[in-house]
Design a protein that fits this description.
By secondary structure, this protein is mainly alpha-helical. Helices cover 74% and strands 0% of the residues.
Length: 119
């Protein structure tokens, strides 16, 4: 019932051959999985490129918010001036409504096209 040395070596060779093929196949499978994971980490839905795009979008939104806040501050200041400063009210009335004070004279100057040269 004991195995002969020839049988051991032939079984060992077969097992070794299958083991090498299995290891090689496992390496290829592991390499393939690694490549897939790296590609997904770079270009996937939550990958590196998506992260960089999200940061750019965040920066743009942050700048837009800063501009909106500054516009808000400017509009509040303008509203305060219009409530409290008569000169500001007069400036708006003159500029936007074309009003003048009593006793002032209005001069309207129109551009006259240049005369054609006479020959």
């Amino acid at each position: 019932m004991s195995d002969t040395p020839a049988r051991k070596s032939s079984r060992g060779t077969i097992r070794g051959s299958l083991g090498r093929r299995g290891r090689r196949l496992a390496r290829y499978a592991l390499g393939f999985i690694t490549v897939v994971l790296v590609i997904d980490a770079i270009v996937g839905e939550k990958g590196l490129l998506a992260l960089l795009k999200a940061r750019r979008d965040y920066s743009a939104v942050e700048q837009a918010l800063d501009r909106a806040r500054q516009d808000n501050v400017d509009l509040r200041e303008q509203a305060r001036r219009l409530r409290e400063d008569p000169d500001a009210i007069e400036e708006v009335a003159r500029r936007e409504l074309g009003l003048i004070k009593p006793g002032e004279k209005l001069f309207i100057i129109k551009d006259v096209p240049p005369e054609a040269p006479k020959q």
